[in-house]
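Sequence in, structure out. Go.
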Amino acid sequence: MKILKTGCGNSYEAYIEDRLTDGVNIIFSNDNNKGKTIIFQGLMYALGNDPIFPSGFEYKNYYFYTSIEHRGKIYEFLRRNNSIAIKSDSEITMLDDISDLKYYFSKNIFELPYIIKDDFQKMVDLSLFYQLFFVGQDKRNPSNLINAGYYNKQDFINLIYSMTGCLTLSDSIKRLKDLLNDLHICKSEIAVLSKRLTFYREHPEIASTVSKGADRERLEKERMELQSINQTISDRQRKRTRLINRKIKLETLLSELNSLNRQLKIGGIRCQDCGSENATYSNGELSFELTNDLVRKNIVKSIYESIELYNSQISELQQMINSKQTELNERMKKVPVPMANILIYTDTIKSYEEDEKRLSDLHDKKAFLEAEIENEQKVHDANTAMQAETKAAILDSMNSFYKLIDPDGTQEFKDFFATRNMTFSGSEEQEYYFSRTLAIFWHLHHDFPIIMDCFRKGELSTQKENTMIEEYKKTKQQVILSSTLKDEEYHSGAKYYSIPNVTAINYEPNTNSHILQKCNCENFMNIVSSFGIIFKT
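Output:
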């Protein structure tokens, strides 16, 4: 994947950056207020990342655009708040929910991995996935994720394990749990029958036994487990209802657009209030001109694709609901009624011969379950071993990069994240992010550009900086960095222009604290209009 162009703006002010090349790009200035962070954050924001713009920048008032190339195909993204339009091969897809973008991304660009989150197997959000290769300037936290929210650092680690192919997913976890539970029940039945057979032999004259109440602790545990399953079913049903409602709205909209299409073919359409012949379709923050035949066809196509996406998600949720309902029904079958009087013995003791036959069958079942558990546990153990190897390999690489940059440094990385009491001085925080980002890249060999805003943060020395740049070159990936120079560096000549195979992009001519300018509006709004968008200032 390669970034071709990015920009942001509206009809009053805008900026476009189209000077990026395939190799190492360094956007630099002599001041901190030249708009570098707005461009970096805007680039990723257009691709679905969470906003981390500088304070005072009212990003909700602007369109954000990023064009990428992936495996020879160009995709253009235009975002305003949570509305996104994507253009590729003259086709336009409209999304009115940022969560839908990851499904488009996974289907068309890169298949996103799954992790276990809240005991549920889910596709990762783009905000977590992008942290593999994008490091912004603000809200950095070596002991946790950048701008941590829904996800935590273990989710990031599981993302790496999933992409390495060693994350144990929920189906395997559930199977092992069910097998262990069945084995526990089997052993309990064997114990009861064994005691009863001994009882028969010692007291053959006794033909019945007294019912006893179940252990209260076991009863409460059973109730809590059943309640948890029922809650999961309710949550999935509510999500399914929301998706069905979205789908119905789109189908209604599609019917209205088809009706409008017929009116246009018969004799045109005109607003009875103002007399305008323009018809528009609003998708959240984006508005499209319906009298344009190409735009209208793309809108209809996009709506069909959205309906198809919702059908897929509804079907997936229905399967989950069915699975949990089956599990609930099976569990309920195993719970005698009333639950407050779970019996240890049956009302009438079976014959000695029947119990002996049952005990023999239970021993066979126990042997089968133990063999299945052993096989399933081997899979878990193999994944655990691979996870340890993955972690060790990445940490070894991180420490090697750190020592390469700072031979006299005293830090030693023992995990993907720093501990809360770990102190970073000078440029060590920047060295940590550099080391982690490159270590992950070389382990995964992913296809994404490495993007780091303010890569000299913490007074990074020139020697360390030059070493980093050479290591970035070795990746053979597109690398986009930003740098703020000291006065003597900026005025001493061509700081970055003289470095071979580095594209230097000077932001110093930009107006302080006002990178967006009126002179760029025409070109930027031409990009916006190419999506069939009706301007919003």
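Check: The chain has twelve helices and 16 strands. The first strand starts at residue 2 and ends at 9.
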